[in-house]
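Please predict the structure of the following assembly.
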Amino acid sequence: MKSLESFFGIGHHTSSRLLARFNIHPTCRVGELANKQVLDLTAVLSDMKIENELRREVVNDIKRLKETGTYRGRRHALGLPVRGQRTRNQNKTPVKLNRMERRL
Amino acid sequence: MVSSWCWSCLSRLRPTPRALPPPSAAPRITSAPFHSTAIQLAQPAKKKGPSLTTAKHRQGHQVRRKNKKPVENPVRPPAAGERKALRKRIVLSNPNALEVKGMQDLSPGTMIDGRLRGTVLGLPVPLLDQLRAVQAFKPKQGWSIFRRPGTIMRHDTIEMGRLFEKISADGEGAQKGQVVKKIISGAKGTGKTVHLLQAMTMAFLKKWVVIAVPDAHELVAGVSGYAPIEGTNPTQYTQPAATSALLARTVEANREVLSNLQVSQQHPALTALKPSSTLEELASLGFQDPAIAWPVFQALWTELTATAAAPGMEKNFQPRPPMLVTVDGLAHWMTDSAYRTADFSLVHSHNLIFVKHFLSLLQPGQSPLKNGGLLLYATSTSNNPSVYGLNLGLEQLAARQAGISPSSPEYPQPFAFSGVDPRVMDLFKPAETSSAKEGPLEVQTLGGLTRDETRGYMEYFAQSGLVRQVIDDHWVSDKWSLSGGGIIGELEKLGRRVQNVQTATN
């Protein structure tokens, strides 16, 4: 179900397991769900760390790296790739994403 | 190119005219030599912004583009479901095709007539709606090239017609009320689905009840809802939407028969059911509310297989007609389905209770259709999930039919370490007790048409205006060979192709 994957923090892996857990077939539409299934899903989603909570956690992790002055933190701040990629040619993604004030 | 220097005197042949300013004063326009504007009047070139090449490295600039307005598409996009409806559309008639003169209909009389072998018989027009309701026609079959739908009477068809005659009530023979179980096998295009269609037509003609699963794959592909049944081990699953669709199809197709039969058994699970209601009303409970579709289907099944009424309900009991059960695409039911259990493992198809019900009919000793009938389960040998157990089971069936005993060394056995699915093998176990009412499971392999049948079939094309050649033995033999030995699907393609060649050359 695509609508589960629209949440930040839920991808194919998590959504397909969630669907299997409540016996929902993958092509099901939200409108076809039984009331109980909707309630179950909501209960599980409310326990999961998704959306803003997860964004905040990721941003805080990066911030911690910067504050402790680690190499990874510096690379984040400089807009350079963090995980040892080469910088000679293709580094559009870190240039785009890694800032002093990182947004997600 | 001629040099402007004179090689003999080393002087310029044509000195630059004095009137022109020196070339460095303005950029010389080389690309437009016939430009009429004086160079001095040209405006100085504008200074360009920072180009991509001069941009500093790693500065994170973006190429700015103007947001273009999306171009309005003048063509209306297709509405939701429109394209699918077009794809699934079944056209049964073509007014451009010629009407075949003297074409007979399939009827209780013609379906057992051996003299009609190799001729094409029309499907009775009043039955077309019923056949559509059980989805007997498939979109890719070539019904739309003829004036009216018709099928060829091949050897297997006439044999089947005789079988219907024997099982039906009008033939008071030894085989009356017998159950015949067959697996129809064959390569792509050999007419398995049309064989099922012919069976359904005959069943409707004989006033049987037809229960059809037109696409077995749909049930295991994970595209309709499923729900576990509490307290089963291993957990079994119902498929409410698929069951309710089956009930809807069954009621639509068998309305006439079902509306004349009344409920004769107790159904404590169905509280909404009145004791005097007909079977049509019983079945329609199920497709109005998919949640109770499975109990309703079970109730309908017990009603249809009842031989006598429950005590106290004998008043309106009428004997139940024989049943035809068809399933198309059996091999899809022999592997794991696309459904998942709660712990994310795949559900085996045999754990879906709908599938299990139809498969249990094949097993010996169950005597599932107490009022007699025919089970026809088709499976392709071409485009199929490859299931070793099924292939082996079919080989074993064929061996038993040929008279090889299961203890003989020639009887096909599974390879060691082949990991054959025991549940699949259980389906093809030989019957321990033979009963007069229930025949053993048989496998019937459909192959190509004979040359005579091919001739009849191609003549039908000619009479419909599709083929304009003289149909002689040589031409028929040619087409028979080209179609891989009379594979009817290939013959149909050839019949169409001949039409194209004709229109191109004429």
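Residues 43 and 52 of chain A are 17 Å apart (CA to CA). Residues 52-97 of chain A form a domain with the 30s ribosomal protein s13; domain 2 fold (CATH 4.10.910.10).
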